Amino acid sequence: MNQNPSASVTLPGRDAVPALEMIGISKSFPGVKALSGVSLTAFGGEVLALMGENGAGKSTLMKILSGAYTADPGGEIRVFGAPVAIDGPQAAKAAGIAIIYQELALAPNLTVSENIHLGDELSRAGQLDRKAMANACRPILERLGTPFGPNTLVGTLSIAEQQLVEIARALHRQSRILVLDEPTTALSARETDRLFALIRQLRSEGIALIYISHRMAEVYELADRVTVLRDGSCVGTLERQDLSAEAIVRMMVGRELSSFYTKTHDPDAQRGAVVMQVDGVTDGGRVLPCSFVLHRGEVLGIAGLVGAGRTELARLIYGADRKAGGSVALEGRIVALGSPKQALDAGIAYLTEDRKGLGLFLDMSCGGNINVGVIDRDAHLGGRLNLARAKERAVRAFGAFRVRAASPQVQVGSLSGGNQQKVLLARLLETGPKVLILDEPTRGVDVGAKSEIYRIIDELASRGLGVLMISSDLPEIVGICDRVLVMREGRIAGEVGGATGVAITQESVMVHAAGLAA
């Protein structure tokens, strides 16, 4: 491992002089040291992955590079060996630096060429020269192989196509340093493959690419080097030949990968105590009749390829969608689950995969979110709320779930993805469920928060809760589940672990998911 990320190391295909050097960058906010002497080097003709937990300092460092923040005195930024003063976005633009954020900065009511020229419009006789702007864009769009033209309205494009517009704008401005912040979050597998092909093309053209992602597979596929931040400091840089999940995780969180998947509960200790039985549940379309049992103190995984029907089955069980047939029994008694409220009242809680759109009230405080499901418990006879009890509940949950925020009064929308997920889990558990359905519980959270969520799941199973967990992350399924049901084309195609005698491995799961069991 190269512990000095500012050292110039020349590899085949990589420029000798760094395109970008950030040396000894620090940034303080009132009461917080966000960055402490961070150094980062990016070369033309390479992809440098920048990794770290939420709160590690990645966003702060990139905001300094973009000119949104000003670094504390003492550090230095060099572009192609020359010191530059980045005191605002225009200075970053002039230095050839472009950042494409997760939330795209485009005007949907303008055309592609108008967005590319935004702030740099061409005019003729006091009027916008739209024809000249469109003609100027065409060579760049052809270079990127876009399926749209310069006069296409941006609001009609997909997210992946809008990303191409952002990249085209950066190339139009002759940017030589391009930062991509979690660019695949909203992309399909096919769109991701196309983006990766474009990134490789830009790398071959000598552009320096800084790629920010939590996804290990993407880093393995694209990165020539990986620089890791932790707690506002640079831990070090790994060359491609040294990349491994163990090394990256150890640098990011300061502990071994083996400590991630906590499993101290003993599902066999309560084997036979069935908490939920699902018989022939179907929607008559995408989900064919499915049957299984869930035991107390068990983490039962549901795996399968995208489109296999996992979330659809969970929503049928929870009453979010209408069943065409089948039944659900809790503790031996069939329960009517025609709505999520009926499911909650019966003892089934469901953590949605879309925590921002369907789970949390982002404008409310963390405490408000934790209490919203049980607010009726705090009502006095006169109809007034016992606010002290609600506050006590929120404070207790903050401690139990190790939520990283100043207090429960903080707006939940301002938290990282992992801490938002902990708040949502805390709210669900306040309802006192017997069964907890988790749909992609670690999607969009960093590795440190994942470890915390695994710990919480293990503790819940130890208390006797039945946990039904849907995940597309096979190492996660293998690491924390006691049994796994594998869905394929709307039906349960197989089972591994438990009494089957088949070990839970990525291979044994994929055999059923891909229809190869026969």
Could you give a quick summary of the protein structure above?
By secondary structure, the protein is an alpha/beta fold.
Please give a structural write-up.
Strand 9 (177-181), helix 6 and strand 10 form a beta-alpha-beta unit. This protein has 518 residues and is α/β, with parallel strands linked by helices. The model is unreliable at 1-12 (pLDDT under 50). The protein starts with 19 loop residues before the first strand and ends in a 5-residue tail after the last helix. The strands form five sheets. The protein has a six-stranded mixed sheet with strand order 6-9-10-3-11-12, sandwiched between helices. Strands 18-19-20-15-21-22 form a six-stranded mixed sheet, sandwiched between helices. Strands 2-1-4-5 form a four-stranded antiparallel sheet, covered by helices on one side. The radius of gyration is 26 Å and the shape is globular. The chain has helices at residues 58-66, 89-94, 112-116, 130-144, 159-172, 189-204, 216-222, 245-253, 310-318, 340-346, 355-359, 366-371, 387-401, 417-430, 447-462, 474-480, 506-513; strands at residues 20-29, 32-42, 46-51, 76-79, 82-84, 97-100, 123-124, 127-128, 177-181, 208-212, 225-230, 233-239, 274-282, 290-295, 299-304, 325-330, 333-335, 348-351, 435-439, 466-470, 483-488, 491-497. It is built from 17 helices and 22 strands. It folds into three domains: 1-96 and 210-258, P-loop containing nucleotide triphosphate hydrolases (Rossmann fold, 3-Layer(aba) Sandwich); 260-347 and 433-518, P-loop containing nucleotide triphosphate hydrolases (Rossmann fold); 361-432, no CATH class. 32% of the residues lie in helices and 24% in strands.
